[in-house]
Specification:
four-stranded antiparallel sheet, mainly beta, disordered N terminus, 1 helix, 266 residues
Length: 266
């Protein structure tokens, strides 16, 4: 951890490359970086403990975060922040960028492309793909869902899986079409989380029915061959709560065949 705090302000173009800015957007502070003393972090590391090195405070609740593959950038989503609902933090420089100064969409999540300068943004009904260098919208994936809850990008960057509160899981093959390639209906209640494994041909979904579905999800190098999606196992390690909340999130370990889940019961 280093020393010194910094306030980060808005910068960059508006969504879709046009439109007027929100009033005084350049004067608004959207996040504040606070550093922990290096001596405290080092002492904790010597004791084999985790320590907070840097804290970034947002003006509203953060719903989701996503790391860039190189580890220096983090995309943070705060739906309640309106036009500042997506912020991109650069850890090495301790700065924050506002990629879209004007957006009227309800943002559900954001994720970086694994190899290209693209940012995927989930709205209530679609996934938008933006080119960060050219500052333009390059693709819109229409899910057909009433309300998107979560999404994930395949390690190849050519496939996207979307979960929705209306119990559906939708798979997009972007090399084939901007329309959904496959719709899966294995959950009886709202789907809360979806995840691709970064190393193995595995995919998982979880929801308010308390179930975690694990799939064999094989993507072929031949672009004319459709992905193979086969159900493998149903895991029920969480209890549905009295207010009908089940498994809220699931994510794979990046290299091991391990699946982490988060439930409302703990």
């Amino acid at each position: 951890a280093g020393s010194g705090d910094s306030d980060s302000e808005g910068a960059s173009d508006s969504e879709g490359g046009g439109g007027d800015d929100e009033p005084d957007v350049k004067k608004k502070v959207f996040s504040k970086w606070e550093s922990v003393e290096a001596s405290l972090a080092s002492a904790a590391a010597l004791e084999g403990k985790f320590a907070v090195a840097v804290e970034v405070k947002h003006t509203t609740q953060v719903k989701r975060v996503s790391w860039h593959r190189k580890g220096d950038y983090i995309a943070a989503v705060s739906p309640g922040a309106q036009y500042a609902s997506i912020l991109i933090h650069q850890v090495s420089k301790r700065t924050t960028q506002l990629p879209f100064k004007k957006t009227k969409r309800l943002i559900q999540g954001a994720a970086f492309h694994p190899s290209k300068p693209l940012l995927f943004i989930a709205t209530q009904t679609a996934v938008l793909v933006y080119h960060l260098l050219n500052e333009e919208l390059v693709r819109k994936l229409a899910s057909g869902c009433k309300w998107i809850s979560d999404f994930d990008v395949h390690p190849t960057g050519d496939h996207v899986i979307v979960g929705s509160y209306d119990t559906r899981v939708v798979w997009f093959d972007m090399e084939m079409s901007q329309q959904a390639f496959k719709t899966l209906r294995y959950h009886k209640e709202a789907v809360r989380g979806v995840s691709y494994h970064k190393s193995y041909p595995l995919m998982a979904t979880c929801g308010d029915d308390g179930a975690v579905h694990v799939f064999h999800a094989k993507v072929y190098t031949d672009i004319f061959e459709n992905p193979l999606v086969v159900p493998v196992k149903v895991i029920r390690g969480h209890t549905v709560t009295a207010d009908k909340l089940g498994v809220l999130s699931c994510v794979f370990h990046p290299t091991q065949p391990w699946l982490f889940t988060c439930g409302a019961d703990h």
